[in-house]
Design brief:
Number of domains: 2
Strand content: 5-15%
Number of helices: 9
CATH class of the largest domain: Mainly Alpha
CATH topology of the largest domain: Arc Repressor Mutant, subunit A
Number of strands: 7
Largest sheet: 3 strands, antiparallel
CATH superfamily of the largest domain: Winged helix-like DNA-binding domain superfamily/Winged helix DNA-binding domain
Helix content: 40-55%
Amino acid sequence: MTGWIKIHREITKHWIWQDPVKLRWWLDILMSANHEEKKINIGMQLVDCQRGQCVMSLLNWGKRWNVSKHTVHNFFTLLKNDNMITTENLVKTTRITVCNYDVYQHSSYDKETQKEHDGNVLETLRDTNNNDKNINNEKKEKNRRFQPPTIDEIKNYCLERKNKVDANKFYDFYESKGWMVGKSKMKDWKAAVRTWENSDKNNYVHPIANYQTSKLDQDDRW
């Protein structure tokens, strides 16, 4: 079975709501009823089954609900007394007609519900795609996060620029600070090398490094 039925909230005030077992059986009948006319083959005969009807023997209903045929008969009698269904005894089977079936499934309602359903599906897909994009962006962002360079990488970059930056000093300083620039994580170590280089050209101590003069003197002697 495919499709759906609609249930009004008023059902919570109905007597059948108070009995979970009977409620389940009633919903099963509603979902078993045809939403369009068809013919059912029973043995060697074809039985007409109109919209809002279903064809099944009391014995098979009992097997379906794991109860006796007598229990099914009593339940159907209860529903008939409350004008919820009508029944017709046929050869080898029983035809049930759900009263006011359009209350549970109206054709125009089906079309509107289908449109709403399709819209919800598309919205869900868009949300899923957006979530996937966000996850992918987070992964890319993680991949773009700063990776500390090796001393060899720093030396090679300095050779390319033909500067006199001491790669060992640069590496030791930022390694000791966890590659932080102020309170933020370094984003581009090459930019830091260029800043260090410009500081050397201007003949003053690198403002970020904040080396003491005595420490620089000691390093120069080394």
